[in-house]
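Quick one from the shared queue. A colleague (R.T.) flagged Tetratricopeptide repeat protein as missing a structural entry in our internal table.

Convert sequence to structure tokens.
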Amino acid sequence: MMDAEPAPEPGQDSSGESRFRAFRQAEALVESRRPLDALKALEPLLEEETDKPSVQLLAGRAYFHSAQLRRAERAFTRVLELDPTDHYARFVLGRTLQRLGRLTEALAQMRIASAMHPIPEYLEAISEVSARIALRD
């Protein structure tokens, strides 16, 4: 789920085109459940485009799917620093925190995401985390 993605600009040099191809390749690799390969494809972008929410979000997804949860948390947090209105980044940050066992923090992020964009997936996740917190207490 990507809202903003690097698009080649008119007259963009081959380096820009190369970065765009690397982003698209990494995106396809995440979709085909090859997160470690996606991270390799993203390496140059992560070094050069640290302020691009789309790059950070894609990296966060790859980290999440490869169980590098602390790195995923940092990437999703960076997305939210750059764009606090990104409901999907909030949701996947919540999922990451859930997997880290930080259920109260996870629930807070998921509730914000749901308030911003109330879709069934977010509401189901809130119910799941709320139930786990109730069982724990």
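Residues 85-136 form one domain.
The chain is about 75% helix and 0% strand.
Added to the table.
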